[in-house]
Design brief:
Flavoprotein-like_sf, globular, alpha/beta, Rossmann fold, six-stranded parallel beta sheet, oxidoreductase, two-stranded antiparallel sheet, about 270 residues
């Protein structure tokens, strides 16, 4: 298991949840690695220092250099180390607070740098109804991912009619666009609301609920995102007519009862 942790304070609720996850998973016999980004001093900005061999020194084209570096083994050592942790893990947990409707910048920078061209994107056949090994396929296929996200606001604020919008929509860029994209099977998020006003008596319940969720990490249903290459999208990667009826927004990209069976197999892995 890999835990990618993004909070600057070791005594925070977010860090306490990370510690519970480590303790619970190790007690169940899992091997656990932790990438504590603030403790590591992780560089958030993607730039030319990410590559030890620049092919075009006069003008940085990050995608071009990322592709070359991954293919030639000239990525910075810290990027390659994180990629190896991902390949080792059978599940990845992301622990971070919800800041301005997203993750802290340091975690965004981890994705920007670690999810390199040729590793997490830009892979597979591109053409016709198939446009790469993505959205259900890719290097992370067969692995599970889950976000553990403390939130300062109240749960009703993040409901379907809440003023902040539904949490599913807020987390869509992370869960669908970042995790499902390279193939992760995404377990529903574990939010903790009113995290900055939690009383001691409530911590026991949150801790117990997280332990229970981790017990189900490999058995509970994952979010039913449609796979890109499973037959539901056309040559322009648009959802085919007749699918998504009765749903709106991003929810049309969730499998619904009565949909045709997807043709993309989902590989299984034995958890460590």
């Amino acid at each position: 298991m890999l835990i990618v942790h993004a909070h600057p304070e070791a005594k925070s609720l977010t860090s306490a949840l990370k510690d519970v996850a480590v303790e619970t998973l190790r007690a169940k016999g899992h091997e656990v690695q932790v990438s504590d980004l603030y403790k590591m001093g992780w560089k958030a900005c993607a730039d030319g220092d990410d590559f030890t061999d620049i092919t075009q020194p006069d003008r940085l084209q990050y995608i071009v250099e990322s592709r070359h570096a991954f293919a030639s083994g000239t990525q910075s050592p810290e990027i390659e180390a994180e990629q190896q942790k991902l390949l080792w893990a059978d599940a990845v947990l992301f622990t971070f607070p919800l800041w301005w409707f997203s993750a802290p910048a340091i975690l965004k920078g981890w994705f920007d740098r670690v999810f390199a061209f040729g590793f997490a994107y830009g892979v597979g056949q591109h053409g016709g109804e198939r446009w790469g090994d993505r959205y259900g396929e890719g290097v992370m296929a067969g692995r599970r991912a889950m976000v553990i996200v403390p939130i300062g606001g109240r749960a009703p604020h993040y409901s379907d009619r809440g003023v902040n919008g539904s949490l599913d929509d807020i987390l869509w860029p992370i869960q669908h666009g970042t995790l499902f994209y390279p193939g992760f099977e995404v377990v529903p998020a574990f939010p903790v609301y009113q995290s900055d006003r939690m009383e001691n008596e409530n911590w026991g319940k949150v801790r117990a609920d997280l332990k229970d969720r981790l017990d189900q990490l490999f058995t509970m249903p994952t979010i039913a995102f449609r796979t890109q290459n499973g037959g539901h999208y056309d040559a322009h990667q648009r959802l085919k007519p007749g699918l998504g009826a009765g749903a709106g927004g991003t929810h049309i990209h969730l499998l619904q009862s009565g949909d045709p069976v997807e043709t993309v197999p989902r590989p299984a892995r034995t958890p460590r």
